[in-house]
Model the fold of this input.
Amino acid sequence: MHVLTSILGFLLAVGLLVAVHEWGHFWVARKLGVKVLRFSLGFGRPLRVWRRGETEYVLAALPLGGYVKMLDGREGPLDPAEAHRAFDRQSLGRRSAIVAAGPVANLIFAVLAYALMYMVGVSGLAPIVDQPAVNTPAALAGVVREAQVLAVNEKPIRTFDDLRVSIIEAAASDEDISLRVRQDGDERVLVLPGSPYRLLDSVKDPLVLLGLRPWLPDAPRVVRRVVAGGAGAAAGLRPDDVILRANGAAVERGQALVEVIRNHPGQRIALDLIRGGKAEQVMLTPASRAEDGDVIGYAGVAFGLDIDPAVRERLQVLQQDDPARALLHGVLKTWDMTVLSLRVMGKMIVGEASLEAISGPLGIADVAGRSLALGLSSFLAFLALVSLSLAILNLLPVPVLDGGHLLFYLIEALRGQPLSEQAQMLGQRIGMSLLFALMALAMFNDLSRLIS
Done:
């Protein structure tokens, strides 16, 4: 089921965002009087072709891109009556506007998607943290179990996702991290030791590295889902089983049950449980897998918590804005994520952030499927982030991308004349090589995650 959801989410996301990007080029070109010959969504064999006015519209088989073909004197002789409508005959400013319009359309879409997300309502986990692991920065700073984070570096925090983004922003800019927390009945500011934190060198969750894990109340662990063919299924675990003890020790607190399973790869664990009102015991032997150089156990079981409704209400946060406030939040969220993306990209370039975070089509499809399954708000957040990433990627000064064309136009403005065809062709070859290298790295990361 997840595979089908992933495919559907991927096709919806890519199709929509490519259409937005190419429509930006198309709309500005038409407004500036340039003749558009073809507007294509996708590459390869055309699935559907129709004509409206002077433009041919194409829906092609491979939905991983698109293009806008304009009248251009570099591609053949021009009808003198239409020469003034050719792209290459436009002024430098007009050509730049047409090229920049694609990424700008993606930025605008990101703002609107985030705004709609805030109007629909963003459900999140309250930023209440569990007891930090020993010797982590959070533990050394004095953070305790059930502390609620109110602000990071005086930036207000409403959800755990807000906390994660603010922590990454601070780490990317090498700032000290100060937390304003409510714990033990009062508010205080705690500074995490260890700056610079180098949280981006690893693909691990930065919050876990700092010791900031979500607080989970003491409650019975309930089996929600059992993966067919997994260790849990082999042990006979079933949905709605209530787990009480593992090897005789209670597992109601925090991540105790998950940690027992992770710490016992290939070893038998006696699980005492309640099934249909009766006490039973099953023997679970977790399978083994490698994770960050360690061998851990996993059961192929999704566990939930049987949480008291009052506690559940404390843990859940719903943010829902009116249209004007949602639009403001959309602009601010887009700005924050743009700055964060550029900082992380800079860290990757200088070797201070892991390249394993780069995802290709498989990784994007996986996240698309998960966000689609979680609901409209999550899928809108995913669309906004991917649209923003597409805008940033296309604005990079790499030939073959929009940013590369803008770089050529900047050089043309400074020189008073365009670069020679040979220089532009050399730039195109270099750009293609860089793009293929990036695609290869992204696919390698996707396959590595899939295999592991």
